Structure to design on (168 residues):
């Protein structure tokens, strides 16, 4: 009878352990309607998801970390078109008249495809994990990708992007 009581205690202890901090250097797919200039990153919609595990907490400060890579996806033309690196901590929340709150994320643009017709169409991409981000783009603004998918998409953008100006 003592053994029967110990098993639930062990499983309860395992469930009660806190989840660790986000993995270093994550890859995020950032969903836009149409391509932007990638000069800045502002978070209005706090809808984060993991491609493999589903929805994440809505706190941008908890999800977006320094040195994470953001891969930009424009849903209108259905293309991936840019890559940026987060260079500082998420700032905010700040009041926003339209949407209540907003956060700013310091970024450095690493690559950008300026011509929509040169960008890879999302439907032609074959992510190494076998999971495709298109299933989540209508439900999440930030989608955390498996490392191999992130590296694959970064390569797709950088191979098509023109020469980049030095960050100012």
């Amino acid at each position: 009878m003592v053994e029967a009581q110990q098993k639930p205690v062990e499983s309860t202890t395992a469930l009660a352990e806190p989840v660790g901090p986000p993995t270093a250097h994550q890859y995020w797919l950032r969903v836009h309607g149409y391509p932007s200039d990638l000069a800045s990153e502002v978070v209005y919609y706090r809808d984060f998801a993991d491609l493999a595990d589903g929805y994440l907490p809505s706190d941008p400060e908890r999800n977006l970390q320094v040195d994470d890579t953001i891969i930009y996806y424009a849903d209108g033309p259905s293309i991936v078109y840019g890559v940026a690196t987060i260079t500082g901590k998420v700032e905010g929340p700040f009041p926003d008249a339209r949407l209540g709150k907003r956060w700013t994320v310091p970024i450095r643009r690493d690559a950008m495809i300026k011509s929509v017709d040169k960008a890879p169409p999302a439907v032609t991409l074959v992510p190494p994990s076998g999971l495709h981000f298109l299933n989540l783009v209508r439900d999440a603004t930030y989608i955390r990708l498996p490392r191999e998918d992130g590296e694959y998409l970064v390569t797709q953008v950088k191979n098509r992007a023109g020469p980049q100006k030095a960050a100012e």
